From TrEMBL:
Coiled coil: none
Molecular functions (GO terms): DNA binding
Keyword tags: DNA-binding, Nucleus, Transcription, Transcription regulation
Source organism, top-level taxon: Eukaryota
Protein's UniProt name: NAC domain
InterPro entries: NAC-dom, NAC_dom_sf
PANTHER family xrefs: NAC DOMAIN-CONTAINING PROTEIN 4 (PTHR31744:SF219), PROTEIN CUP-SHAPED COTYLEDON 2-RELATED (PTHR31744)
Gene Ontology annotations of biological process type: regulation of DNA-templated transcription
Domain NAC: 3-102
Organism whose genome encodes this protein: Dillenia turbinata
Signal sequence extent: none
Database matches in PROSITE patterns: NAC
Amino acid sequence: MEKGFGFRFHPTDEELVTHYLSQKALDGDFSAQAIGEVDLNRVEPWDLLGKATFGKNEWDTKYPTGLRTIRATDACCWKATGKDKEIYREKILVGVELQNSM
């Protein structure tokens, strides 16, 4: 997808959660042209740049409750690192940014 000359996309964490992620959660067909989608559970980190696509994104879960996601790819797995960052909108918690690495 081609964006105009000089196009910049620099939303805050709060804007990403409230304007994009929440819309995607409510409508699985919602697509923001400036944000590509890729299934991080299916792609190795070194292949991410070439694999970003637009379309439906589904989370695979380890347990029927859906509380934990599968964090493994064929070659390795995602590991929680660092401290999670809470995201607020007008003093209301709207999301948590998880720090992960392979």
